[in-house]
Amino acid sequence: MQVSKKLAALGCATIVMYMLAVSGAGERIGQRVLESLGDRKMKNVVVVSGDLKRAPAASALSFSLTELPQPTEEREEDMQQTELGLPEMELMYPAEAGEELEPGENQEIMETTIDGGLTINNATQYWVDAPQIVADGPGISLSPGEPQILIIHTHSSEAYTQAGLDRYEPSDTNRTEDTEFNIVRIGDELTEIFQEAGLNVIHDRGIYDYPSYTGSYTRSGQAIEQYLRDYPSIKIVLDIHRDALGSDDVVYKTMAEEDGVVASQIMLLVGTDESGLEHPNWRQNLAVALYLQNAVNARHPTLMRPVSLVRERYNQQLSPGSMIVEVGSNGNTLQEALAAIRLFGNASAAALMQLVEQPQTAE
What we know:
About 30% of the residues lie in helices and about 15% in strands. It is α/β, with parallel strands linked by helices. The longest helix has 22 residues, at about 1-25.
């Protein structure tokens, strides 16, 4: 009898959720929640740095891909910001809008390896011919001797579970203004790897989830537009985040199963125009993401979660070669995330160097 009542209640809840989604009421409710989060202030400053240096080119890689649509997660879009981890597997449930789950007395950190490799989580209604996209190539080239890649962090204060010597003063749950311990540190590491490989990189170390979480993408988008005006040679924009996965009782840490290294997993997220906002060249971004996904997977088969294709844009309409890079989750430690970005950086740098235009020699 109890089971029947629970099933009936679940059915009613499902119908109500469907009606809210169809009517648009769900979106309005969600917006009110987001507006209430706008008052959560964070004190921060903006510091921008970027150095250019050159090194010998790296060797080529070969790729292959299969497609397997799976559930995905959504992040914030334009001025509607909330961090909401949708289920990646049966035991994962969404957190409350804008709220991250921090390991505490009644929570445990659980390791999980999300099958990824050469797959796509397609949360859109678009049909994607991934093998054909890979066969066609990324469709962009990088200019030698000029800025080629912009690394930025819309949620710059995102941080990891504190462990060992990696201790910080939190500014919010799983967040800190200290760039030695937040997601900016991951960008520092990737920047150094890319530059040592011979790529020209600008790393924006600014804090964009200030003065509030709401509006983060608007602020980072304005910065991206300015960089693109100042340096039109930029063809790759990587917005680096860390994910948030868990339930009321468990916080998950994604773990690659690579020999000789303890590393989190990484996910590439690509937006589209399905939300109704203009983004005509999203397939170009997807092509670059698949190119990098395959390059990394060729070396590290368990490092990458599936590429996530979503309805929202996340500033990716501003430039070809734009994507979000999710490095680990809030259950991971900083050292696990650093290990992951080193694997990703070395493999993707080699692939990116293949896109650099070779200077023409006089005959």
